[in-house]
Amino acid sequence: QLQLVESGGGLVQPGESLRLSCTGSGFTLDENTIGWFRQAPGKEREGLSCIMRDGTTHYAESAKGRFTISRDKLKNTVYLDMSSLEPKDTAIYYCAADLKFRWSQYPVLKDFEYDYWGQGTQVTVSS
Q1: Are 77 and 85 in contact (CB under 8 A)?
Q2: What digits encode the pLDDT tens for the residues 54-70?
Q3: Cα–chain-centroid distance for residue 126?
Q4: Which secondary structure element, helix H or strand E, spans residue 83, and what is its range?
Q5: DSSP assignment of 60-78
Q6: Which helix (H) or strand (E) holds 49?
Q7: What single-letter DSSP state applies at residue 52?
Q8: pLDDT per residue over 74-92, tens digit each?
Q9: How far is CA 107 from the centre of its chain?
Q10: What's the first-to-final CA gap in the chain, in angstroms?
Q11: What element of type H or E holds 54?
Q12: CA-to-CA distance for 111 and 104, rounded, in angstroms?
């Protein structure tokens, strides 16, 4: 059974950093496209970043410069490192897996492009 589990969310103060983890089971994450999304209350789900099978990374404008996606093949885990967090970053953060073949030069940041989703982890940025 394919499964994704996010962890690492929590309450942080503005300006602080946080690392989110997305661990897979039942399949190998680095053989697929893995994306990070977030959804704030009352807003649509937003694509933040993705890492392609060959390691190419893509970022949405809202994530560029503050967020970094990476992976650990041995741990079958993809990370999202977030820095200089602001209250507007408060949301539920999700990781997702796209099992379809993708050309690495094209970003995959639309939620309908993904096949499997984790349950999400809450990130709250507040003083």
Answers
A1: no
A2: 999 999 999 999 999 99
A3: 21
A4: none
A5: -TTTTTTEEEEEETTTTEE
A6: strand 46-51
A7: -
A8: 999 999 999 999 999 999 9
A9: 13
A10: 40
A11: none
A12: 17
